[in-house]
Amino acid sequence: QVQLVESGGGLVQAGGSLRLSCATSGSIFGIYAMGWHRRAPGKQRVLVASITSGGNTNYADSVKGRFTISRDNAKNTVYLQMNSLKPEDTAVYYCNTVPTYFRWGQGTQVTVSS
Questions:
Q1: Which DSSP state fits 15?
Q2: What is the per-residue DSSP string for 63-105?
Q3: Under 8 Å CB-to-CB from 24, ≥6 apart: which residues?
Q4: Which of 50, 49, 44 is nearest to 63 (CA)?
Q5: Percentage of the chain surpassing pLDDT 70?
Q6: How many other C-beta atoms lie within 10 A of the C-beta of residue 6?
Q7: CA distance linking residue 7 with residue 9, whole number of Å
Q8: Strand order from edge to edge, sheet including 77-82
Q9: More confident residue, 3 or 85
Q10: C-alpha to C-alpha distance for 114 and 98, rounded to whole angstroms
Q11: Are 32 and 51 in contact (CB under 8 A)?
């Protein structure tokens, strides 16, 4: 059974940085594109960054220039480096394949204070 385990969230002041990690099952990691999604309070979950198995990346306009997605194929892990955080980045962050094929993990809470 595929598991997606997110970690690295926390409380940070505006302008600060966090690095999120997502550990995945090795059976999927080398096959699928991976993405970071977020669900802000009262809003739907949206994709904010994605990376193909070959390393090509794509970002939502709201995070472009501030967030960087990367993957470590040896560790079956995908990362999201978040810099210059804003209060509107406050959300629960999840990883999954792109398109989403697997059950969502619990996510990791990111809270940015003003």
A1: T
A2: TTTTEEEEEETTTTEEEEEE-S--GGG-EEEEEEEES--S---
A3: 2, 3, 4, 5, 34, 76, 77, 78, 95
A4: 49
A5: 99
A6: 23
A7: 6
A8: 4-7, 18-24, 77-82, 67-72
A9: 85
A10: 32
A11: no
